[in-house]
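hiii so um. not sure if this is the right channel but i have a protein structure encoded as tokens and i wanna go backwards to a sequence. like what aa goes where. can anyone help
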């Protein structure tokens, strides 16, 4: 997509996001996103095919181009942002790792939300990676899948799930395989989990696989035993996108705090004149500026085709810590009224806390970063952007 087309698409999406802002109070009050209205609106503005290659009907954006758009969604509502993030991230993963047949079956429907890919990794009884308890037993030309997953985002409408399981018997290339399971497969059930603290309305489901049979051709990329590698690559870029979501939430919190500091008057002058408030605003802006630079660097490397294992985890880690600090200070600037639902700061504060958990907790990011460094990964050079585009955020 050339620069002019990109600007036109981005502006159309930003206008659409402003219209979705009118649904925020309804979503927060009812703890439900009206998908029958939101999904068509997202599709019409072009938000559901952003990372889908153009040959499958998507926009084929680079990560550098995509980051400011997902950040903009995070400024308005965390639940809607979550829907867009998961839908695009794992359509992107399928486009990178799926076979031509798998992509041709699923991806053409994603820009209109007729199809959608969810990621089935987290389990209630086990950890992730090699600790998974879900199994996929090979029987001739089929896999038989048994196990449980939970906290699976977009499970309320996803048409396909990339399920990570321990293959039995284990292939020579590794014990884990990623297998595509259509929603309507017999033996596969989906139940909603309780509503979350923030990001209201984005459903996270519990998946149960009881003797679920799918063709062996459904193994992602046609590569049995490559699930661990495929998982690492998918999470690598998704962590950058979660950090961009942190950026958008933080930017909105700062915008609201600056406005409040200018309008709130005590002892005859705006609180913006108070040195303590000025310090809060400066600290918030510093976190945002640092995160924006990290994201631009990581995105430029990815768009050049480089791996970014350390950068991705550092972006995710710094992003969740930065948005935590920014929303903390935003609450201090806004005072007691900011703790009520009368102001958006309260919602942003709750929405930001999901970013601590998406695509791995802080301890996982510490581990991934340290492991990359100890393995000799080199990351510490200035880079030039892969393409000229709008700045992140």
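sure thing!! here u go:
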């Amino acid at each position: 997509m050339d620069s002019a087309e990109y600007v036109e698409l981005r502006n159309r999406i930003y206008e659409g996001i402003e219209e979705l802002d009118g649904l925020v109070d309804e979503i927060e009050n009812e703890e439900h996103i009206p998908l029958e209205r939101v999904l068509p609106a997202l599709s019409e503005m072009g938000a559901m095919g952003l990372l889908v290659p153009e040959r499958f009907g998507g926009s084929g954006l680079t990560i550098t181009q995509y980051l400011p758009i997902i950040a903009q969604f995070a400024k308005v509502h965390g639940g809607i942002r979550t829907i867009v993030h998961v839908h695009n991230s794992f359509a992107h993963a399928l486009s990178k790792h799926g076979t031509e047949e798998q992509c041709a079956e699923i991806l053409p429907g994603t820009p209109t939300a007729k199809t959608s890919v969810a990621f089935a990794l987290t389990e209630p009884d086990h950890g992730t990676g090699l600790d998974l308890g879900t199994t996929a037993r090979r029987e001739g030309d089929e896999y038989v899948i048994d196990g449980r997953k939970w906290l699976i985002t977009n499970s309320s409408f996803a048409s396909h799930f990339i399920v990570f399981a321990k293959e039995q018997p284990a292939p020579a290339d590794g014990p884990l395989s990623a297998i595509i399971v259509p929603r309507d497969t017999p033996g596969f059930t989906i139940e909603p989990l309780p509503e979350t603290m923030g990001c209201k309305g984005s459903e996270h489901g519990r998946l149960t696989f009881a003797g679920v049979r799918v063709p062996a051709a459904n193994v992602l990329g046609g590569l049995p035993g490559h699930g661990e590698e495929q998982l690492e690559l998918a999470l690598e870029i998704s962590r950058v996108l979660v950090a961009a979501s942190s950026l958008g939430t933080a930017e909105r919190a700062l915008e609201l705090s600056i406005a409040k500091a200018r309008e709130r008057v005590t002892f005859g002058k705006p609180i913006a004149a108070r040195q303590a408030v000025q310090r809060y605003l400066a600290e918030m802006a510093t976190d945002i500026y640092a995160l924006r630079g990290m994201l631009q660097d990581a995105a430029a490397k990815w768009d050049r085709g480089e791996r970014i294992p350390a950068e991705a985890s550092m972006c995710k880690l710094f992003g969740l810590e930065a948005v935590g600090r920014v929303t903390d200070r935003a609450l201090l600037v806004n005072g007691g009224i900011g703790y009520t639902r009368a102001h958006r700061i309260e919602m942003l504060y709750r929405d930001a806390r999901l970013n601590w958990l998406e695509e791995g907790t802080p301890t996982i990011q510490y581990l991934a970063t340290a492991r990359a460094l100890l393995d000799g990964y080199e990351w510490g050079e200035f880079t030039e952007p892969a393409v000229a585009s709008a700045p992140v955020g």
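oh and The longest helix spans residues 227-263.
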